Amino acid sequence: MSSSSSSALEMEIFQYIDAHQSDFIKDLKEWVAVESDSIQPHLRKEVMQMMTLAADRLATLGATVNLVNLGSHQLPDGQVLPLPPVLLGELGKDPQNPTVCFYGHVDVQPAKKEDGWDTDPYTLTEIDGNLYGRGATDNKGPVLAWINAVETFSVLKLAMPVNFKFVIEGMEEAGSLGLEKVLEEENESFFSDVDYIVISDNLWLSNKKPALTYGSRGNACFFVEVECGSKDLHSGTFGGIIHEPLLDLIALLDSLVDSTGHIQIPGIYDSVAALTEEERKLYESIEFDLEEHRNNCGVKKFLYGTKEEILLHLWRYPSLSIHGIEGAFHEPGIKTVIPAKVIGKFSIRQVPNMDLSVVKKQVVEHLEGVFSKRNSPNKLKVSMPLGVKPWLADFNDLLYKAARRAIKTVFGEGPDFIRDGSTIPVARMFQTVTQKSVMMLPIGAADAGEHSQKEKISRHNYIEGTKLFAAFFLEISKLHQNLHETSHTETIN
Ligand SMILES: C[C@H](N)C(=O)N[C@@H](Cc1c[nH]cn1)C(=O)O
Ligand SMILES: [Zn+2]
Ligand SMILES: [Zn+2]
After folding, report:
1. Ligand closest in space to the Cα of 213
2. Tell me, what's the pLDDT at 488?
3. Which ligand has an atom closest to residue 106 CA?
């Protein structure tokens, strides 16, 4: 923390946060202990429990909390599951203050110790200053850091510099199902007095240097299903005489990307927004340690050798990843079977100005074309169960200025202005529906291991992140009031 640039008020707040680290970590431990995995149907109850825990925590702070029922959704196998409610919370209504709405999610990606964790993923464990646990960074830690910062003002009996609103959901990892409808329904009510929207659900670009994020890629998720009949078959009895679904599927999946990472679907790059000279220059000025990034990733070599190429391919160009095959034998040992039905799962991270319906058409036509050349009698079905649009904001907005100042105060250096290769569905929804300024203010470092084994948040990032949010409240309040005083004076003159 750079104390030279901190005010007496900030010092008081930061000292309180430092002194209460163990309480904040205890709260995170309690949240991580709930296996609120929104992907696996049998864990939906835990997601519900997690929503209640978050609601109780905010209510204890004095916030008004409304859990909005989203009804249910149907899984591809026909099973109907209740959706967790969306939490809309509110604290403070001072007309002098700006209203800042914070978004976060309390569901997590699946995790099992056997996947390769050193510790139980649902028991927050501190090792060498790192707090390991599923959801520590994605996204329970940042949600709690924001709440800790609000609580600090309250406990110290300090005047709240902003009015707070909260949108907390439990289905982000499954594509934020049901959320867009709530935003649309609440646009004229809950969101009507919101001035700014802040999301803290992504990572810095480096392990040490803070960042501010002004764009994220979208995601088009695909299922490609190949079926030969209703039952699995013995590979000794039928192998060699039938068109095997898994062979068809592997050929289809293999046709998607070449060995240089280039997507092979005709037309897919056609509408990608052209790179401007200004953008290229911006990328040149970003500090990015290729070696550190490679170490975080744990691979031997990247597809590209320069910083600019890597950033462009993470933020500015689409990428295609294959995630898995449902129905294929994947357990240890040998099972001499020919699976009757297999479903390949892949997704395309898309960028401005790609259109989701065009992407879908291109994918379907490409796969049908490849399949028809195989003369297979099997049944092919291609679907796009989820389509999320990319998001891009103007980083010259007041919101970014306030966050940059707060980062400088807490971390002693200004942030990298970055885009993100991953997807936060709500970012574009907020922008389109509410038309308010949206910013991503991450507190997780690049080595946090989101979605991976050994996910963590460092004690440093969690605690300094809490201070960052508190400093941000003060900065946005000042800048907002200055702006309004100036515009008021201009109106009078
Ligand atoms: C960045 C955020 N923490 C995250 O992990 N988002 C998910 C959302 C998603 C996209 N498609 C399906 N879910 C991600 O980027 O994978
Ligand atoms: Zn997340
Ligand atoms: Zn995630």
Report:
1. 1
2. 56
3. 2
Which of 329, 340, 322, 324 shows the shortest CA–CA distance to 226?
Answer: 340
- C-alpha triplet 451, 457, 458: angle, nearest 5°: 150
Task: Collect residues with CB below 5 Å from ion ligand 3.
Answer: 138
Q: Which two tokens stand for residue 436?
A: 């308010």
Under the banding of pLDDT at 50, 70 and 90, the label for residue 490 is low
| Confidence band for 291, pLDDT divided at 50, 70 and 90 | very high
How do residues 335-361 score in pLDDT, each as one tens digit? 999 999 999 999 999 999 999 999 999
Coil, helix or strand for 102? strand
Query: How remote is the CA of residue 460 from the centroid of ligand 1, in Å?
Result: 24
Strands lying side by side in the sheet with 130-132? 125-127, 130-132, 456-458
3-216+390-492: CATH number: 3.40.630.10
Single pTM value for the model: 0.91
- Beta strands (DSSP E) in 328-482 are 337-338, 341-349, 379-388, 391-392, 416-420, 437-440, 456-458
165 membership: H or E segment, kind and range: strand 163-169
CATH number assigned to the domain covering 219-272+317-388: 3.30.70.360
Asked if residues 213 and 440 have their Cβ atoms less than 8 Å apart, the reply is yes
In DSSP terms, which residues pair with 164 in a beta bridge? 91, 100
- Sign of CA pseudo-dihedral 11, 16, 17, 19: positive
Residue 403 phi/psi, 5° resolution?
Answer: -65, -35
Q: What is the pLDDT of residues 413-460, one digit of tens each?
A: 999 999 999 999 999 999 999 999 999 999 999 999 999 999 999 999
Domain boundaries, the chain: 3-216+390-492, 219-272+317-388
CA of 219 to the centre of ligand 2 (A): 14
Measured distance CA(463)–CA(17) in Å, rounded: 7
Per residue in 246-286, pLDDT (tens digit) is 999 999 999 999 999 999 999 999 999 999 888 888 888 88
Ligand 1 test: best mutation among 423, 440, 443, most atoms within 8 Å of CB?
A: 423
Q: What is the mean pLDDT of residues 131-145?
A: 98
Let me know the angle formed at the C-alpha of 421 by 418 and 422, rounded to the nearest 5 degrees. 120
Strand partners, 234: 337
